[in-house]
Design a protein that fits this description.
Blueprint (H helix, E strand, L loop, with lengths): L1 H25 L6 H10 L4 H8 L3 H19 L1
Helix pairs in contact: 2-3, 2-4, 3-4
Amino acid sequence: MSTDNTDISRIEAKLDTLIRLLALSVASDNHSLKDRAVRLQRAGMTPKDIAALCDTTPNTVSVALSAAKREGRKSKK
């Protein structure tokens, strides 16, 4: 049973690495934090995960997402 758990843990670690690599390709440094945060959130990532990828804090990511949301509302008017 512990071998199965070890195998599952290794698979999960590899999947986490793949997810991070894909997320980084979607949100390159050529974009602003706000744009990267929006793209990564659309991909299903949380502010905490986005912050880890973008080397910032979850609060900063949340502020960027809120600003993007406000801008989206303004452009609809």
